Amino acid sequence: MLLRRLKLTNFRNLPNAALELDAGLTLFHGANAQGKSNLLEAAYLLAIGRSYRAAAEREMVAWAAREGDGYAVVSGTVERGGEPDELLVGLDLRQGETVQKRVQINGSARRASDLVGRFNAVLFSADDIALVYGAPQGRRRYLDVLLSQADPRYLRALQRYQRVVQQRNRLLKGLKEGRAGEQELLFWDAKLCEEGAQTLAARLAAVGPLSEAARRCYAAFGADGDALEVAYAPTIGVPDAPSEGALADAIREALTASRRQERALAQTMVGPHRDDLRLTMRGVELAQHASRGQARLAALSLRLAEAELLAARRGDQPVLLLDDVLSELDAEHRALTMEAAATYSQTLATTADTRIVPERFRASARRFRVVSGAVFEEEEEGGET
Questions:
Q1: Which of 297, 319, 299, 133 is CA-nearest to residue 220?
Q2: What does the alpha-carbon distance between residue 172 and residue 184 come to, in Å, rounded to a whole number?
Q3: What does the alpha-carbon distance between residue 333 and residue 351 come to, in Å, rounded to a whole number?
Q4: How far is the C-alpha of 258 from the C-alpha of 264, rounded, in Å?
C-alpha cells in the first residue's frame, strides 16, 4: 500500500500543499512549528477519519480560513494492488461554529467510518510514551484503531457497543433520578452483553499475537534480556473457552455483581469500554517501574507490532508515519528504528534535524523542507537544519 498523492487546502497552517509521493523513505524537515506534523496528521486523517491530536475538529481548519471561507480539505490517492482509491475529507465551518465533515471515496459521499481500512497507516509519535505511562483510554484506543483497520466488522461492532453504553448510562441516570423503570434496563443489559461479547472476543484473539510481536520487536532493540509482555486486563472474569456466548454470559454476571455501584454512579462499570492492556517486564508493571528509556522502546515496539499485525491481517503493508520519533533516541536505537521501518514499502517521517537520521537511510530518502506552512522539495542532500 502506498500514499501516492497528498493535497491540503486550509489545513492548519498549510494553506495549499500538493505532494506527489514515492515508495521508500520521505523526510519532512524544518524548524519547530512550521507544519511538518500537520502533514502527517492530514495523512492519518485519511486513514482513520479523525485527528490523532486535535481536541476539536475545528482546530484543523486554518485560522485565516475560519475568518473567511471557513473550510479545509485533505485529499489523497492511495494505491493498493495497483488499484487507486481517491479519498477526501472536507471540514466545513461555513454553516456556523460546528464543523460539518464531508467524506468522499472515489467521488461518492460516504461516512467517515467508511475510510477506515481503505488506507492503512500506523502513526508513531513522540507522545506514544503515554501508551506506557498514560490512562487505559489511550491503550484501548491503540487496540481499537489496530483492529478497526484490520477488519471493518470490528469497527461496526465497536460503534454499536459504544452506542449501547451511552444509552445504558442515560437510563442509569434516569433510574437514579426516578425517571425510568427497571424493565428498560433489562433490555439494555441484553444488548450490552451481545455487542460487548463481539468486541471482547476480537480483542482477546488479537492480544496473543500482539504480545508475541511486541516481545520480538523489543528484543530487536537489544534490551538486555528484558521481555516485554502484553496481556488483556478485562473487567469481567474471562472463561477458559471465550466464545461469544460464554463472554456474553460472563458480562451478564459482572453486570449483576456491579448493579449497586452502577446505580450509585449512574455509569456502566464493566465491559470492553473499561478494560485495559497490561504491559509488564518480568511480571512488573511498566507504568510504575519503567525508566523513560524503557518506556520509549516499549512504545516503539507496540507500534511496530501494530504494523506487523496489520500487514498480516490485511495482506498488505501499512504506510508508516513517524512524527519526530528519532529525536529522543540514541544513535543505536535510531538506526534500529529506521532498519525496522525500511522493511515497509513507504515511510513518511518528520524531523527538525535531518542529521539524526542515519546516513544510509538519509542518502536515499526524498526530502521536503517545510517553512511557515510552505513545502519545498529538495533535489539533493544539503542545507540541513
A1: 297
A2: 10
A3: 16
A4: 10
Cell of 205: 484473539
Cell representation of residue 268: 456502566
- Measured between alpha carbons, how far apart are the two ends of the chain, in Å? 31
Give the pairing of strands 2-11 and 14-20.
antiparallel
Closest CA to 89 of 114, 123, 64, 67: 114
pLDDT of residue 332: 95
The amino acid that residue 152 corresponds to is P
Q: If you ran DSSP here, which 8-state letter would residue 120 be given?
A: -
What is the band of 384 on the pLDDT scale with cuts at 50, 70, 90? very low
Query: Residue 306 and residue 344: Cα distance in Å, rounded?
Result: 13
47, 121 Cβ separation under 8 angstroms: yes
Distances in whole angstroms, Cα of residue 126 to Cα of each of 62, 173, 326, 328: 24, 39, 8, 8
Residue whose grid cell is 473487567: 235
Q: Assign 381 a pLDDT band (cuts: 50, 70, 90).
A: low
**List of residues 6+ apart from 282 with CB closer than 8 A:** 226, 227
Give the pLDDT score at 179.
86
Cβ–Cβ under 8 Å, residues 310 and 146 = yes
Angle at 18 between CA 13 and CA 23, to 5 degrees: 115
pLDDT by residue (tens digit) across 285-321?
Answer: 999 988 999 999 999 999 999 999 999 999 999 999 9
279 close to 230: Cβ distance less than 8 angstroms: yes
Could you tell me the pTM of the whole model? 0.93
What would the DSSP string read from start to end of 180-208?
S-HHHHHHHHHHHHHHHHHHHHHHHHHHH
Average pLDDT, the chain: 93
The residues facing 91 across adjacent strands are 72, 101
**Distance, CA of 50 to CA of 119 (rounded, Å):** 13
Separation of alpha carbons 38 and 136, rounded Å: 26
